[in-house]
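User: Could you check the structure of this?
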Amino acid sequence: MTKPLPTVDAMTAPYWEAAQRGELLVPECDSCGHKHFPAEAVCPKCLSNWHWATSPGVGTVYSFSVVRRPAGPGFPDVYVLALVELSDGGWLMTTNIVDIDPDDVRVGLPVKVDFRKESEAISLPYFIPA
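Assistant: Sure, the predicted structure tokens are below.
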């Protein structure tokens, strides 16, 4: 059995289309410039409209946990669940850190986004050491 994948809807379709191209997008407020993730109906800071902005996809590990029990079918036995603070505005993204021994992950570790194709429609953003 494979792991469950996100559902694409009208609001998130541009994000998933960009992910297929290896491009990271983030919602950015039209009024206050606040970047937030995931996408919400309005800016969580000032309740204004927002647009999708391109992110360079580089940052540092803000917090993490090494999970030593699969979340369900299709998930690895051991994985790193992390919050990454992105360099373009300090917004946080929940993700997995991959291509590193879980015991070597630390707060402050420089990382960059790495998209991995999970299906014909979905490429997921993981982060690897920079």
